[in-house]
C-alpha cells in the first residue's frame, strides 16, 4: 500500500485549511464542523479534542466513532480523481471530506452537502 503524504499530516492543520477555504467564500467554521461530525460521527467535544491534539489523518479516522452510512451518496471528482474509484479506504474517506468542503465553498446548501 502506498503511503500518501496526506496520511501523516496533522488533522488540525488540514482542519484550519478547510476553515480558511470556506471563510473566503463567506461560509463558516460551524458549517465545517457540522460536515466533519456528519461524516465521522464525532460530537462537538470529540471534534474539539481532535483539533487540539496532534493526531495525523490516519489516527483521526481510526478514532472516528462511525463513518456515516450515507457516504456512498458522495460522488464526483476531487483533485482530478473520481471518488468512487479510490481503492484505499482511508484515502476515500479523506476524499469524501475534501468533496464536502469543496461543495460548501462552492455555495451548496447544507441539506445537499449532507445528502439529506
Automatic annotation (TrEMBL):
Pfam families, per the entry: DUF2200
Annotated InterPro entries: SP1917_dom_sf, UCP033199
Source organism superkingdom: Bacteria
Name under which the protein is recorded: DUF2200 domain-containing protein
Organism: Vibrio ulleungensis
Lineage of producing organism: Bacteria, Pseudomonadati, Pseudomonadota, Gammaproteobacteria, Vibrionales
Amino acid at each position: 500500500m502506498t503511503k500518501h503524504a496526506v496520511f501523516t499530516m496533522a488533522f488540525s492543520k488540514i482542519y484550519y485549511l478547510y476553515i480558511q477555504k470556506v471563510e473566503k467564500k463567506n461560509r463558516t467554521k460551524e458549517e465545517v464542523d457540522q460536515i466533519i461530525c456528519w461524516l465521522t460521527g464525532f460530537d462537538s467535544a470529540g471534534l474539539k479534542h481532535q483539533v487540539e491534539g496532534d493526531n495525523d489523518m490516519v489516527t483521526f479516522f481510526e478514532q472516528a466513532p462511525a463513518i456515516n452510512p450515507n457516504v456512498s451518496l458522495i460522488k464526483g471528482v476531487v483533485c482530478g480523481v473520481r471518488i468512487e474509484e479510490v481503492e484505499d479506504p482511508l484515502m476515500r474517506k479523506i476524499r469524501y471530506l475534501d468533496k464536502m468542503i469543496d461543495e460548501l465553498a462552492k455555495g451548496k446548501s447544507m441539506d445537499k452537502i449532507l445528502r439529506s
